[in-house]
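User: Please predict the structure of the protein below. I'd like the answer in structure-token form so I can feed it into my own downstream comparison script.

Assistant: Understood. Taking the following sequence of 176 residues as input:
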Amino acid sequence: MDPIFSPDAIEAWAKAVGIYQLMNTSWAWPTAEIIHFFGICLLMGTVGMFDLRMMGVARGVSMHALHRLVPLGVAGYLMCAVTGSFFIVTAPAQYLYNPAIQTKILLMALAGINVAIFYLFSSRAVLASAESGAAPAPARIAAFISLTCWLGVITAGRLVTFFRPPEFWCLWCTPA
């Protein structure tokens, strides 16, 4: 029996639910690529600007106004997560053993932990601070970590197609 994260098991599941056929026999793959790119634009355009503002760039821009755009960044993230999942389950052997994807997923997890910590401990202080003033130091650190993680996610995503690693590079899978 194949492990649950083996490329064969994932591909069999994708074929059973129809994702594999859809992505490989239609315009679904290029359409998913376009949606993925639009999602990145929304994510970086909103979360990136909010992070830069917290780090002290464009202090004349209201934190409240930028924070109202964060739901667009969340929508962009969801667009990327859904389409990225389609890519992985449609070509699992290309993705599961790829150090660029593993790095991308790790950085996404770090960004998620970072944003959770920010909203638990710093967000109220940031939004309560004077609009033209600097964000508190913990918020600036969280913004730097966030921006670094998301730029790393984009970089790792671009490197995915350049790596065709041997199967033993997978950090969480057992090669088939």
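That's the full token string. The chain has one domain: 7-169.
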